[in-house]
Amino acid sequence: MAIQKQILSPYLHAYFLQYSEPYDLIYFSHNDDGERMAFVTMMLIASIIVLLNVTLLAILVPGGPIENRDFSKLKGIVFWGFNLFLILLGAGSYIASYLLLISSPHALWIAQVIAILYFIVYAVDLAGIFPKSPTKMSKPLLLLEIINISMAVYLFLFVTAMS
């Protein structure tokens, strides 16, 4: 098996060689290193897209440089439930990114679910459904949320095309 070692990190290369047999049956024709490398490269790109999505979400922390709306009207369980959901979405994104890097068989559908959740978060905010704030959305925030929802759609289409 002549995989170009300089493209893969030593750890990813060792993992890939150790667990590549199922992929030989599912994704690749027998002993086709070019297809295998293309698949690993696509998984790496998908992982980077997931990391971009979580980074774009992280800079929207309320009270930060972009998100300046007032959410004081959100009370108790709604406030903490929404924050917990966003924290779990961020943590799930890091897990999905790692699973994509190691070419896990479940990584693609997990990335699809993550992309759908990002889309829902930004769509309900852009539609003004939730979270409601007496403060209007600033233009930089609006632009960033449009970029974020576009990245969620792109992630979904990218990983769907791979599966």
TrEMBL record:
Pfam families on file: DUF8051 (PF26225)
Keywords: Membrane, Transmembrane, Transmembrane helix
Protein's UniProt keywords contain RNA-binding: no
Taxonomy, superkingdom: Bacteria
DUF8051 domain: residues covered: 45-160
InterPro entries documented for this protein: DUF8051
Organism: Paenibacillus xylanexedens
Protein name: Cytochrome c oxidase subunit IV
Stretches that traverse the bilayer: 37-61, 77-101, 107-130, 142-162
